[in-house]
Structure formats: C-alpha cells, structure tokens
Amino acid sequence: MFVQIEDLVYQYRNASEPAIKNFSLQLNEGEIIAILGESGSGKSTILRLLAGLETPKSGMIIINGQKMVDDHTFIPPEKRGIGMVFQDYALFPHMTVENNIKFGLRHMTSKQKQKRIEEMLELVNLLDYKKRYPYELSGGQQQRVALARALAPAPSLLLFDEPFSNLDASLQMKIRDELKQILKQTKSTSIFVTHDQVDAAALADRTVLIEKGVVKNISKVEPPKSYSLI
Amino acid sequence: MKLVQQVKTQINMWAILSFVFIVIILLPNILIAIHFFGEPNENWFHIKEYLLFDIFYNTSILLVSTGVATIIIGTSLAWMITVYKFPLRNFFRWGMILPLAIPPFIGAYTYQGMVNYTGFIQSTLRNSFDLQVNQKYFSMMSMEGTIFIFTMFLFPYVYVITKSFIENQSSSIIENARLLGANSFETFVRVVLPISKTAIVGSATIVMLEVINDYGVVKYYGIQTFITSIFQTWFAMGDRESAFKLAGTLMVVVIFILVIERVIRGRKQFSYSTTKIRPIQPKQLKGVKAWIAFSYCFTIFSLAFLIPFVQLIFWMLMTYERILTAEFYTLVKNSFFAASVAALIIVIVGLIIANYSRIHQGLLPKFFARVTVLGYSVPGAVIAIGVITIFLMIDRNLGSLFKLFSIDTTFVLRTSIVMLISAYVIRFLAVGYNSIEAGFEKVGTTFTEASRTLGLSTFRTFLKVDIPMVKGAIIGGFILVFVDILKELPLTMLLQPFNFQTLATRAFRYANDEMISEAASASLLIILISGICIFIFHKVLDRGEAN
Ligand SMILES: Nc1ncnc2c1ncn2[C@@H]1O[C@H](COP(=O)(O)OP(=O)(O)OP(=O)(O)O)[C@@H](O)[C@H]1O
Ligand SMILES: [Mg+2]
C-alpha cells in the first residue's frame, strides 16, 4: 500500500464531538480517490490532517513507507512532501506565476529549477504567462497555476480541496478532463474532495462517501462504457 | 506520550519569544501591584486624608464630562458627514481627524496664550475697543477649560471610529428606518446610536484613557489628578512608596473603566456581514440646513484645529530665528531616533506575538494577545515608575556583578536611553500590534498553509510569505507608533536621560516657563508630522475601502 490511513480521529478545539471518526483508507500508487460528502461532513478536515495542518487525536498515516503521524510521531507539513491545491488556490499575490511555481523547489541548481518551471508551465499550458501576477489571470488559469505549483516539487501525494468550485460549469468540465490527463501522465497519487457525483465519477478510480466524519461507503468507479452510435 | 507530542508542537521559538515579551510587559504592572499592597508610610496617610478625595473628584468630573462631550460632538459629526452632503463636507470628512495631530498639552498652552492678558484676544479688545476685561473670565486654567481642551483635541477618536462603523453599515438599515416613518433625527437616535454602541463606547473609553494618561494639560492648568500627584510624590517628595500606591489606585480606576466598558457594550457584537454591502449614499442638504451643517462643522474645526494652528504659526514666525539653532536640531534628532527605534522594536515584537497567536489556537496565545493589547490602558507615568524600579534592580545586580569581576564601570542602565525606549515599547506595543493583527486577519492562514505544504518551515514562511503579505499593516503600525511616541509627554518626562530632550518635552518646558511663543516651533513640527501621517492614513484607508 502506498498510502495507509488508519483510524484517524480528530476533534476541533471548540467542538463537542469529533469531526472525523475512525477514518481509514488505503491508496495504491498512482491511484486517484474522490472523497464525496455533504457540506460539513469533514472532507476538508481529512485533507488537512493528511497535509499535517492539523494534528489528529489518534490514528496513523503512513505514506510511501514513511510514518507521518502516530502516537509518537508528528512530521510537520513542510517535511511531508505532500502537495495541496486549495479551494481558493492561495496563489501568493506578491509573486509572479513563475515565482509561485518556483516557491516549492528546493535542492536544485537554478538551471534545474528553471527547467522544472518550464516543464510545469508546458504541462498546464501556460508558458506565455510566467511573468504575470495571479490577479492578471482568469479563474481557470489560476487553478492551473495552483496545480503546477503543487506538482512542481514532485510530491508523493497530491490533495485537492474542491478544485472546481470556483469555476463556471463549462470550464469545470474542460479543466476536469485536463486534470485527469495530467494526473495520469505524471502518475500522481491523489485525493480530491468534491460534493459533485459527476466530478467524482469522471476523475476518480474509487470514491469514498463520508457522512458526519464517518466513512459510509467506498466504491470503485466503473470504467466508462464506450457508446457506439450505430 | 500524547502529551509530550502536544507540548512539542506547542513549544517552539514563537511561543518562547512571545512568552518572554509578555513577561516583560507584565513586569512593571506586577511590581506596582506588589507595592500597592505593601506597608504604607506616613506620607501616604497624609495623601489619603488630604489629597485623595480631590484627586478622585477631579478625575471623575474630567472623565464624565469629557466622555459625554466627545460622544456628543463625535457622533453628531460622524452622522452628519456620513449621510449628508453640504459645503466642504468632503474636506471635513478627513479634516475632522486633524485635531488628533495636536497633542492636548500643546492645545492647552496655545489657548491659554490666546486668552490671557497679553494674548491676541485681550490685546485686540484693549487696543481697538479700549475694553478692559475681568481676568477671571479670561483664563482657561479651570476645570471647564481643561474639559474644553480635552474635548476639542480628543473627540476625533469618537468621530473616526463611529464614522467608519456607520459607513460600514448597509444603507438598507437607514432606508428601512425612513420607510418606517422615522425622520433623520429619530433615525439617528433610535437606529444609528444603538447599533453603533460598541464603536461609541469603545472610542469613548480610548478618550477616557487618554484623559487619565495626560500630564501636560492638567499640570499646566493646575488641576490635581493622579498623574500630577504621582509626579509630585516621586519627584518633589522623593516618596516612591506613595507614588506606587497612587499608581496602584489609578490602575484600579482604569480597570473599573474597562469593566464598565465591557458591561455597557454587552455581549452583542454587531458584526459586519461578509457579503458586499451597499454603502450609504449621502443626501444633498439644501438652503438653511446646509449652512447649519456647514457652520457646525466649521466651528468645531476652527476651535479644534484651525485657530490654535494659525496662532502657533504666528508665534513661530516671531521666534524661529532664536529657536532654530543647533539645539533644535538635536531635539529633532533625539525625537526621531527614540521614536523610530522604539517603533521598529514594537513592529518586530508585534509581528512575533501576532504570528504566534495566529498560528496556534488555544488559551495561551489568546491570553498573550489580550495582555499585549491591555498594555495601552496602563498610563505612561505608571509604566514609567514600574520601569524605573526594574532598572534600579538590574543596575544593582549588574553593579555587584561587575564588582565581583572587579570591572570598573560607570555604565548605568537607569540613566540610559535603553530605559526610555523599553518603556515606550511596553506602552505602545498595543498600537503596533493591533495594526499587524488586523493585517493578518485580513490575509487569513491559507497562504501560510500553502507555503508549508510546499516545504517551507514556519520561519521561512514568515519571511517569504507572511511579512510581504502584511507589509502595509506593518508600515501602518510603524507610523502610528512613531507619531504616538513623538507626541508622548508624561513617560518621557519621567524617564528621559540627563541632557536628552524630545520635541514634546522641550515644548512643554518652554510653555511651563511662560515662554509660550518659543514653544511654537517644536509644537508645529510635531503637528506637521502627525498631520501628514494622518493624511496619508486617510488616503490609504479610503483607497482600501474603494477596492
Ligand atoms: N476551525 C474549526 N473549528 C471548529 N469546527 C470546525 C472548524 N473547521 C471545521 N469545523 C467543523 O468540522 C466539521 C467538518 O468540517 P469540514 O470543513 O471538514 O467540512 P467539509 O466537508 O469540508 O465541508 P464543505 O463541503 O462545506 O467544505 C464541520 O461540522 C465544521 O463545522
Ligand atoms: Mg471543505
């Protein structure tokens, strides 16, 4: 198992009951998982726990053989090698597209960095935009920069929190297909959160349904049947 | 094991530094509390018997009258300027903040200089109309005069805070009241005042804390208050114990005011809705009404800014040749140096504490934030005697330490500028902190989290993301603190090293030595710098609101 999540429990400081109760999940390398659930069901909280932005009350997370969290361990977010695309993208407004992508690159010569930036920009089809600032981009372009920024350090796991919620419907479909292509092309293991069944079915290999912090159902997505027009 | 993990994630550089700063802030107060409950001496019984009643009486009158007067003037102006258009309204909108650029003590001696025997009012009456007036009615040096000065130079606090509160309300509230049949005055009294209660009470509290903190006005006008009594017992009588007792009693008064504020404010917080609201569209006033509104604003503006400002310019023109010497430049240098060093330290300390309480939730960070803000409620003179006492202790210990190693040293912290700057930092940290905290609040935590998932530690995130993103708030905080220190009097008077004077203390000394026109140059420089900062602020603020 590439990612192993066992019995995670998390309770917000001022809440009366846990937001996440005994959450367990396993992922294979390169797999795409969709977490589905109503608003307030705890989807974002799971991603935050994985990223290390919150500390679970109990439970264990192992990624690629490295223990991230258990009763004795807590690896801080910056040492986890997990990429995250935020719902509102969180692009640094004081940096250009190029510098946003460069932000997470470490232990590289500047030539290597430059090469990596170009690769990423090409991947998300934004080569001409590297000198722009985030506010000079459309919503869809911002989303792609956020993706490129998260992918650039080659994270072992990628997390997406409602990646399409800020885009209008027609753009959603286009970006969704692009995203799937990119994720498969880069063989990224990823988890994304959504409350849209259609998104989940189109993108993921498996979907996890949660309700009030508890896993209700895990199901495989059937590969789309090919319709033939006769 | 769980606990150890928790502690490990909680205790880090940020927590430790914040803790150290908080202890430093609290130390003078703790010292005062200890002495407050200590054995009283003979003199204290004397003070208690003959002075304390007067002090309490004067303080209560000053607080209540100034509080009420600033609320009346401040809220009426805020309402008028927000909902009506009349001649010069756009100018008054920010011009009404300008009186804050004049420290009350400068206003006090300027007004006294205008109305006394040699002042321009009496000279004009004498020379042009051959009128001799009863001196009794031509002196500001009374309780009424003091209240007038405080009201004129402090009402902008109420005005600014209430105005921005009303401006942030949706126009539908006012429109609804009108639709329900209320006229303007009714709307003001029955809708606007109640919903602005938090803002009004909060700003009136600031005014009262300023009145309590004041030394210059009451000393010059001869009104006995806590601060003047602390100066007397400390300086004139050399009776530290009684000064501590007075400071402690004053702190009880301060706490009382803060509690009352809490009670009046209640638990209801009328929070702004996050969705974009339709701003209030001011209504054009016509005819007599427009001129009444204009005259009211113009009168207040003249009394609180224009008249004293013009008078000071006259005095400066009379004296500047004698005043603008090398000594004056030393004053400027001293003021700028002390204010900018202290403001720099405050901004750094404020950033650390704000960042700590932002990243970590929980009681301790919240407590830290609270203490930081409360620092501003402690009057400067109280902080000063607390700080002196601490430095005396440090000096004593350092002295014996140096002797131990038989190092001959004349280095004494107590008389150095280190002490003055430490006290500034303790007193004004809240001002810088508030600005920075507001900046962080606006930015949120997502960018910090994004940076950390991209592999940057808290510290590197702080440098590369957090600081650049709240740059505006940092600069704003720096300027606010800088101006406050430039105007500061009581703390500086108590703690300034030998041969070290600031523009404010020099101006006060001139005025106190009946050399009122000589005080004008230093005063004007203070007013000019403060005024420019206020102007910049207003412009930046307006631009921010427009976006
Ligand atoms: N900072 C917080 N403090 C206290 N409770 C919180 C906090 N953040 C979230 N919660 C609560 O935890 C639960 C799960 O929240 P979470 O944000 O994970 O939901 P979500 O599934 O992502 O919802 P949405 O689809 O609306 O984004 C909710 O009941 C929420 O109210
Ligand atoms: Mg969510």
From TrEMBL, chain A:
Catalytic activity: a quaternary ammonium(out) + ATP + H2O = a quaternary ammonium(in) + ADP + phosphate + H(+)
UniProt source species: Mesobacillus persicus
InterPro entries: AAA+_ATPase, ABC_SmlMolc_Importer, ABC_transporter-like_ATP-bd, ABC_transporter-like_CS, ABC_transpr_FbpC, P-loop_NTPase
UniProt-listed Pfam families: ABC_tran
Keyword match Disulfide bond: no
GO cellular component: membrane
Top-level class of the enzyme under EC nomenclature: translocase
Keyword field: ATP-binding, Cell inner membrane, Cell membrane, Ion transport, Iron, Iron transport, Membrane, Nucleotide-binding, Translocase, Transport
EC number: 7.6.2.9
Any GO molecular function: ABC-type ferric iron transporter activity
CDD domains: ABC_Carb_Solutes_like
Protein name per UniProt: Carnitine transport ATP-binding protein OpuCA
Subunit structure: The complex is composed of two ATP-binding proteins (OpuCA), two transmembrane proteins (OpuCB and OpuCD) and a solute-binding protein (OpuCC).
Phylogenetic placement of the source organism: Bacteria, Bacillati, Bacillota, Bacilli, Bacillales
Boundaries of every ABC transporter domain copy: 3-230
TrEMBL record, chain B:
Residues covered by the ABC transmembrane type-1 domain: 56-265, 332-537
Cited Pfam families: BPD_transp_1
Domain of life: Bacteria
Stretches that traverse the bilayer: 12-35, 55-79, 91-111, 137-160, 218-237, 243-260, 291-316, 336-356, 368-391, 411-430, 469-486, 519-537
GO biological process, one term: transmembrane transport
Keywords assigned: Cell inner membrane, Cell membrane, Membrane, Transmembrane, Transmembrane helix, Transport
Keyword match Protein biosynthesis: no
Stated family: Belongs to the binding-protein-dependent transport system permease family.
Protein name (Swiss-Prot/TrEMBL): Iron(III) transport system permease protein
